[in-house]
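Weekly sync notes, structure subgroup
Attendees: PM, AL, DS (notes)

Item 1: joint prediction request from the bench team. They want all three components modeled as one assembly rather than separately. Inputs as received:
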Amino acid sequence: MSKRIGMEIALATAEAVALCRPDVIAAYPITPNTHIPEHLSDIVAEGRLDAEFICVESEHSAMSACAGASGTGARAFTATSSQGLLYMYEVLGIVSSMRLPVVMAIGNRAISGPINIWNDHSDIMTMRDLGWLSLFAANGQEAVDMMIQSFKIAEDAAVQLPINVNLDGFQLTHMVEALFLPDEKEVDRFLPRRKPYAALHPDHPVTMGALGMPDIFTEATKARDQALVDSRTVILKVWKEWEKQFGRRYEPIEAYKTKGADVVMLTMGSMGETAEIAVDELRRDGVPVGLLKLKLWRPFPFEEMKKAVRGVKTLIVTDRCCSLGGPGGPLAAEVRSALYAEAARPAIENALIGLGGRDVTVDDFKQMFRQAGKSKGIYEFYGVRG
Amino acid sequence: MMSTAKPISIVENFEIYAPKLVDKEEFFCSGHRACQGCGEALAIRLMCKALGKDTVIANATGCMEVIATPYPATAWTLPWIHVAFPCAAAVGAGVEAGLKVLRRKGVNPDRYIKTVTIGGDGGTVDIGLQALSGAMERGHDMLYVCFDNEAYMNTGIQRSSATPFGASTTTAPAGKASIGNKTWKKNVPEIMVAHNIPYVATASPSYPIDFMNKVKKARAIQGPTYIHCLSVCPTGWRAKSEECIKLGRLAVETGVFPLYEVENGVYRLTVETPDPLRPVTDYIKAQGRFRHLTPDEIRTIQRRVNLEYRKLMNKVEHSLSWTE
Amino acid sequence: MAQKKWPETWQEVTPGCMIFEGGNSREYHTGSWRAQRPVWDNAKCIKCGICYIFCPEACVKEDAQGYFAADLDYCKGCGICAHECWPGAITMVEEG
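Output from the run, pasted for the record:
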């Protein structure tokens, strides 16, 4: 039986990972994800989890050790944030190209500079094109659930790709929340032992990480991309299974009070919870607004996005990241791509908010809703002074 | 046709016939695309013979990765993984951890499999040094072999911190205002000794039996071990391909690269060097990368080689085992 | 694991470009790189195997009588075997 407990989300995330019985955990400290591997090391030290815990000397080595471990057929996990993610950047695309289903929790944090330890999404956005599946949690319960789902999705025979689960740094990682921690037996039933496509062992030798010359690189890249596109079916299947077994429903885009809404806002991560309150208050005042919460960032849910904004007049896309010198926020760029060919599509405004840990309050969201249609340019730094 | 050569007893001349007795199975196969006379390809071939089947290899990016695995072909019959340039030791650490835990949990057969990580000098002593230090310090049950050809040969003979003083490379070229590389070779075997690991050795494919014995010894130790193998690169050293083995021998006989091992802190020369050492000019003059050096500059090198050799011999004479 | 020898289409590329046929590099014949070939004079050969042990191509093979020869499919003609053969049983001969 699942039990409802009050727990810091990072710790609950670690408990969820432990329930998945990872074989190898390699981690290097960086704020704000650190409580996840710290707590995992506690669980290993207490003898509750049989795993090799490697205190690597860098994030580059953390991801490399995960690659090596995953190559042997082991279930490998790591967690990081911000600069740590950038430090392991070189290895990220290689892990996905080698089809190694490594699972990573990211306690999202702004990337330097100026150096800043607080939350935004600029870290994960740097790796959006590297072939990883990517989920966004809006609260602690989602973080716990997605952690367990992610192993099953990544290791599916039709997927075999790495996956990251994004938790907003501090705003999720360090919050105490009442949540259900699934029962060990239930998780065992949901998540069987990994069956690798290939494993490093002399009984069945394999060469992993070969050189791809120009005559094969295009085909190899197409195969990778297709694997990501096709993973969507598996993600939906796993979420259906999850709902059946654990009773909590997951969709690529979760709609909140969008029925009859003229203005709809799109969020990723923890801000969705605050935005819900703003929607409730405005609806109470008779303003027809709604909210979309994106949970699946990669593969990007193009079809669901088109469907979700049908009939909407204005769509406010929030981004916790700026594509400097580019089209504003990465999420808005994706949404515009998704909707470009649609005959009827909403006006799209892009608000860059919550950068480097800047608080975004219920009032901020209400104001953004009220200002809809007045945005100048293709993106705006909401609330910027000066 | 009958041999007219004088028959020699195998028992009395074991050293002469030792090569014949080496296992004929190849784990690093023909058809790889290394340059003619590649000392590194040879060293890897010999290493694999000493390691045997129950081995997993993690390989840093470099010549050996490029020449051996152009998809869909591989020269390897051992399980092999390559991830990137700086992180071979971390990949090896992950492999070792994975094999250990999967055996413990009964997922893999209950049989010992050795993890061996290999890299060139760039991937070991420069960009890979941090990952190497980490893996050795953590005590993974892993043999790391550095195949040192003294420059970034795969990218076109750029200088690394393993490049010897005075060698001309494409980023430390000799010229009117330059003698070529201005720094002395970084002593990574010593850095490994400082990690207090149970076994460190230098080796050369020019002494195949010595090299293979060291690999076997390291394989048998359950813990972190390190072998630094000087691998002659005729292409990068501007030398004749047929002189590959000879150059390796000259490196040893001149004292430029003595062959020794350090077991639990105790230093031992494994291949006797001539007394006095051969002059370094014998080694230097056979290589185009040193062609520009003046007699004065060669004397500077000679002095340094003498000094380093004396330092090593001091350790051979005075080192104590930490297990006693 | 089934693997198409030389994949043409993206569907034929193995996931992760993994290679399951160890040692299939042998299908690539490096012998065409050779300018000189080693020729053994078995009258001088003492069957010590020094040519076998020092071949970077792993292409010097021992026959039933204990003599050695290079597999010319792979021999790149580096000349190490001839240089190292101390009884002088191997000579390098220009390729026609």
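Discussion: The first helix of chain C runs from residue 50 to 53.
Action: AL to compare against the crosslinking data before next sync.
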